[in-house]
Structure formats: C-alpha cells, structure tokens
Prior knowledge:
Layout: H1 3-13, E1 18-24, E2 38-42, E3 45-50, H2 56-72, E4 80-91, H3 99-110, E5 115-120, E6 126-128, H4 141-156, H5 161-170, E7 175-178, E8 190-194, E9 197-202, E10 206-210, H6 221-230, E11 234-238, E12 247-249, H7 250-264, E13 277-279, E14 282-284, H8 287-296, E15 321-323, E16 332-334, E17 336-340, E18 343-349, H9 356-375, H10 381-386, E19 395-401, H11 408-422, E20 426-431, E21 463-466, E22 469-471
Parallel strand pairs: 3-4, 4-5, 11-12, 18-19, 19-20
Antiparallel strand pairs: 1-2, 2-3, 5-6, 7-8, 8-9, 9-10, 10-11, 13-14, 15-16, 17-18, 21-22
Helix pairs in contact: 2-3, 2-11, 3-9, 5-7, 6-7, 9-11
Amino acid sequence: MSEYVDALRQQLEADSDADLATLDVTTDNALAVGHDVWRLQWRGETTTAVAGDANLHTTCGALLDALAMVDFAGPDPAADRSVVNVLVDRLLPGESPTETDQALRSMRDAARGPARIWYRRELGGWVEDHAAAPTWPTGDRRVSDWVDRLMLPRLTAQPGRLVRALVDAVDDPSLHLYPSEIEKGSTERWAVRLDGLQIGVVGSTTGKLSIGKPGKRGDRPQRAAFIDVFGQPSVIVTERADPGMGMLGVVEAAARIRLLLRRFRAADVRGAPITHRHKADVPIVDEHTLEARLLKGLTRLDGVDESLVADDALVARGSQFPTLWGHSADARYLDALVRRDTTPLAVELKVATSGRGRNYRRSIIQAVLYRHFIRNAPDLDPWFDAANLDRDAVEGCIGVPIPTRWTPGFDQTLHSLRRVAARVGVQVHVLDVNRPGFSGGWVLPSAVAGGRGCDGSAPSRTRWVGRGRWRCGADRC
C-alpha cells in the first residue's frame, strides 16, 4: 500500500461522515471504475475519493465515475442521488492551482446536476472548492499569439503547384496535406501524410520524402518499408522535367507512394485505411489513422451531417487545434475539429483497447475540457470568424470505432458511455473507418484474389455491407 493510499484510508476512517460499510476499493469492470477511484456513501450522498497522487485523468475521471454510480450502481439504493461528491486527498488549491485542479473545476461546472469537489483540511476533514473554473479573457497573449502566428496562417494558406501536382499524381484519398509546418511569414511548406503517417514535407520548388529517423535498435517497420520502396532513407522530389541524381520527378515519386500505400494496407484497395501498426502481430487502424480519415471526410460521425472546416478535403484544416486546460499549462491538442453547419464539433477519438469502458470514459474528460477552453477564450474569435463558425456554440464529442463484432457487451458499454457523457453534455459517436465516404466507391484491383472475384469471375467493384465488412462484387459472394 502506497503512502498516499494509506493517507486516504486514514482520512476516511477518521471521518464520521464516511460510511465505511459502503467503501469499495476494488476494480469494478461492469461500472468501468478502477481500484484507484474509491466509492462510498458520504453524508448520505454518492461519493468518489482519490489519493493525493492521483493524476489529472484519474482525478477528473472520479467525477464521471460518481455520475456513473448515480445512473447505474450506487453504493446504497438509499443514498441521496441528487448530488455527487469527489473527495481529493490534497490540500485546497491556493492562488496557483495546478492544471488538474482547474480541469476538475471545469468538469464540475459541466455536470448537469449538483457536483461538489472537496479537498482535505489541514487539521482533518474536508473543505469544498468553490473557486471558478479557468477562463481566458480578451487580451490573453498566449491565445492571441497562437491565432496570429499559427492558426490563421494554417487556415488560409493554399498549397502550391508542386504539392498539388504530387497529390493529383498519387490520386488516392488516403493522401492528405497538413499545415503543421506553416506559420506567419512561412506559408509554403506542407506536411504530406498517408492516413496520418507523415511521409515528407514539400515546399514551393522541392520536397523531401522520408519516414522517421534511424532507431537505436534498427529501423521501425514504417521506415524500413519506405527504404525498401524508395531505395534510400530519403529522396528529394522536384517538378523539374529532368531531375538530377538522387532526385525524383513528380510522376515517379507518386508511383513509389502508391507502392508504399500497398505495403501499409491490409487489402490493396484504393482509399482503404492504412494499417501500418500492429498489436499482437495483427494490423490495426490506430488513432492517427482514425483522426486523419475524419479530417478527410472518409470517416463520418454516425447520426451527424458533419462537414470539414472550410470544406477542404485537401488540407486538414481542423487538425492540431491547440487548447489549454489550465493557466500556465502546456497546450493540449484536440484530435479533430469538424462542423455541423456553423457549429464547431471538437472531437476526441479512441481506438479499441483492453479496458475500453474506462478508456472511452476518460475521453469524455478531454471533450469537456476542449469545449470549455474554446467557449471561454474569446481571442480565438478571428479564427472562428474566418472559418465561418460560431465559437460559443462549440460542442464536445467523442468518437469510438465500430467493433469487429457488435456484441451485447459492446452495446452495454456504449449505452453506459452515452448516459455518462450526456451528464456533462458530450455526444458519443460510433465511427466506421472502413465505410467509404467519397464518391466512386473503392475499386478492388486485379492484384487481389489472384486477379479474380471470390467465385473465380472477373474482378469487380467491392461493395459495403456494413459494420466493418466489405464484399466482393461477384454475384455469388
């Protein structure tokens, strides 16, 4: 038992308001609560408690766990469910609250229904935190600098002739441009990515293609694949008709990129998601791929007629949006910003993992905090005005992938997730990364299935049959 856990136990044992008979310190898989968030009835109300060393996600998650207890499994049916409490075994924050302290205040204010935060008193017992959640009023230098130096240039800069020619020559929806290299006064460098995997940076007259850097224990699979396809760790791309030694023209570079795409895909299908990472030797679609495809319009939020920022499917305009969860904190970048008409949708994405119930619930925290910053930072207005979006109307969303098998267990996880998310005004969407989101569908090349359909007939267009499955176009498939 750590000193922090021991201190929390002593604090509760000395508290006459704590009903120790209801104290639960075990992992509750059904409720998606870990052993680091304790549950009990305190002052007759539904309560969670965390030790003094709890991090931001555990501390803020304790509030969501309390809301889940109210909805699904309160420690005592007789407990007062009109209010929830979070006991944090740290001293009440002073004039310089931490990012965690401020984030918890934002979570408290987002809760629909009374939620109270309590900290340990110096001489025992608990004291409520009444301080306001953080805001970033007009004139915040950090926010205004972001907007002027980075955000507006990245929203308005237009790709040049060379990078457009490369995109056109590759002719694959998975190729996407990111403005991450752009800042005020330098608007000609574009990051080139395949479903989120960066393969180079292209400027006005030349570009350099490469993946990663040499590793101490050898090249990672993505870099190794690049070297195998291109014959060297990096190449220079030029629009010159007669590229020099060690350089590639646009047509040849595009052909190599298409070969690289085939190496990263489970099926050689134009526009299919790349699976360049593996888990237990199984290729997976990771969060970067999911994010990239949402920002490209290849993956959609279920039940929402969303659009891309600036209606731009060439450049990921809604990528790498900076936010703050507290003053004097590091920037936190939301996964994707898309829109519904003029309403911005701040989306946090998760892929399937073990313990996904808790992992998915933690994503609600991020969606709440992204939304809180955007609503409370008016210096962001020039960016939102330029994008024709209503900053004050921003909504927080989370996106989770459709499972390989839609089981009753996933149904239960999704139902619980949506109920808890609704308690803090966050929407939950299921994303199908394999579903085609662009005109023309995906064509199954003749290289697949030995150049024949599943029944031996000539290859034909694949068709979508739902829930992560594709079917060959042959009549008897």
